[in-house]
Design goal:
By secondary structure, the chain is α+β, with helices and mostly antiparallel strands. It has helices at about 5-60, 60-75, 110-125, 145-210, 220-240, 250-265, 285-305, 360-370, and strands spanning about 80, 85-90, 95-100, 110, 130, 135-140, 250, 270-275, 280-285, 310-320, 325-330, 375-380, 385-390. A five-stranded mixed sheet has the order 8-10-11-13-12. A four-stranded antiparallel sheet has the order 2-1-6-5. Helix 4 runs antiparallel to helix 5. One of its GO terms (molecular function) is kinase activity.
């Protein structure tokens, strides 16, 4: 199992664990809320019974204190109406408002407030019928403020925890990524420095061979020089990691065809290469880095072809958006649709000896250094894959006027 798959598995387990914690919290709070609902319902029914018997109980001094205690201690908002639906009394609502137009500087007459409260109560719970001195009344109630808060508490709690985890994850990921980038930049620059000496020696040895054996036109020496130049380009790539590359205006077709000419000589004869499309389109490129992109795509395509096959590069210009499309297609084994995004992750590889860094570096070079895009355009198992690179064209077109 590669590191990317391990990381995905751990993320999945942590996500499941967080979901289970959230579900447990919701269920526990829900049971607590239901318990409070029953208590408030019992309290409301007790209040109704006290109201029905209030006049009789008031006559008894022993029960008068009980009646007042029950009336004052109820936390449940209650409204009582007569048979015509007119509000006759209320309890547990805003104490600064009144339902009756009386001259009291401490109270504000607001009948609409009580109408809205009554509407909410009717929507939440059925009323209790009351009979006081032969007159019919109805008592309504709604959930207390504390109970309403408890209903939403687990969701608010989960939201806060999620935001905290998201912030912590982003902070740690950023710190870890910066640390990894620092290590990779240092390693790359040290590698470039170490490669400098043997490359210089190889250049000197080839010059000595040409002069000693009179091999100026020897094709083998020429290929050796091409490889040495390739090593120089690779060294230059590593030395530039961590610094902003310089982009220059180049013809895309020429840059890619030059690299294919070098690459296909060092690949199996069973793999056929072709390049088609617009030969004039131009884009801002850093050639050593962009060659790295093409190299990684061609290597992956060649590795995906088990026996005979072909690799084609098609260059298309989108005039409307002033973009350049570069499609690299192969007739290899293909990629499952579920892995279209995963192939660009560091550590993802299908080869036993692969590092899984090629396409990750390719994506970074295209997106971070060339302000472009790269993605799997299409793929079918057993038939092949097409990667698409999108770059900004350096050519500008002015609309023609009649």
């Amino acid at each position: 199992m590669n590191p990317y798959q391990k990381k995905r598995r751990w993320k999945f387990f942590l996500l499941i664990f967080a979901i289970l914690i959230g579900i447990a919290s919701v269920f526990y709070t829900d049971s607590f809320v239901k318990k409070m609902e029953r208590e408030e319902s019992d309290q409301f029914h007790l209040w109704v019974k006290i109201q029905e018997r209030a006049m009789f109980l008031y006559d008894n001094d022993d029960y008068r204190t009980v009646v007042e205690t029950v009336r004052k201690n109820t936390k449940t908002p209650v409204i009582m109406t007569d048979s015509a639906g007119i509000i006759t009394s209320f309890n547990g609502l805003d104490s600064t408002k009144t339902n009756y137009p009386i001259s009291d500087a401490k109270l504000t007459y607001d009948s609409l407030y009580f109408v809205r409260q009554l509407r909410q109560m009717k929507a939440q719970h059925p009323p209790d019928e009351m009979n006081i001195f032969g007159r019919k009344f109805k008592a309504y109630y709604r959930d207390s403020f504390i109970l309403t808060q408890l209903r939403y508490f687990p969701y608010i709690q989960m939201g806060v925890i999620f935001l905290f985890l998201l912030t912590a994850y982003a902070a740690f990921s950023s710190a870890r990524r910066d640390e990894q980038d620092h290590v990779w930049v240092g390693l790359a620059k040290e590698t470039a420095h170490q490669l400098g000496t043997p490359i210089s020696s190889l250049m000197a040895w080839t010059e000595l061979m040409k002069s000693k054996f009179d091999a100026e036109d020897d094709p083998l020496i020429a290929e050796m020089e091409n490889d040495i130049k390739r090593l120089e380009i690779i060294t230059d790539r590593f030395s530039k990691i961590g610094s902003k590359p310089i982009l220059e205006d180049h013809t895309v077709y020429i840059v890619i065809s030059d690299f294919i000419r070098y690459f296909k000589v060092r690949t199996s004869d069973k793999v056929k290469f072709s390049i088609t499309g617009d030969e004039q389109v131009r884009a801002m490129l850093n050639v050593p880095l962009f060659d790295w992109v093409i190299e990684n795509l061609l290597k992956n395509a060649a590795n995906a072809i088990e026996n005979e096959g072909s690799i084609s590069v098609n260059i298309i210009e989108n005039l409307a958006k002033e973009q350049v499309f570069i499609d690299v297609s192969d007739t290899g084994k293909g990629i499952p649709r579920s892995k279209f995004d995963a192939v660009f992750q560091p550590g993802y590889t299908t080869r036993k000896r692969g590092w899984g860094l090629g396409l990750s570096l390719t994506k970074r070079i295209v997106e971070n250094y060339h302000s472009g895009e790269i993605f799997v355009k299409e793929s079918e198992l057993g038939k092949g894959t097409t990667f698409r690179i999108i770059l900004k064209s350096s050519l500008r077109y002015e609309p023609t006027t009649a």
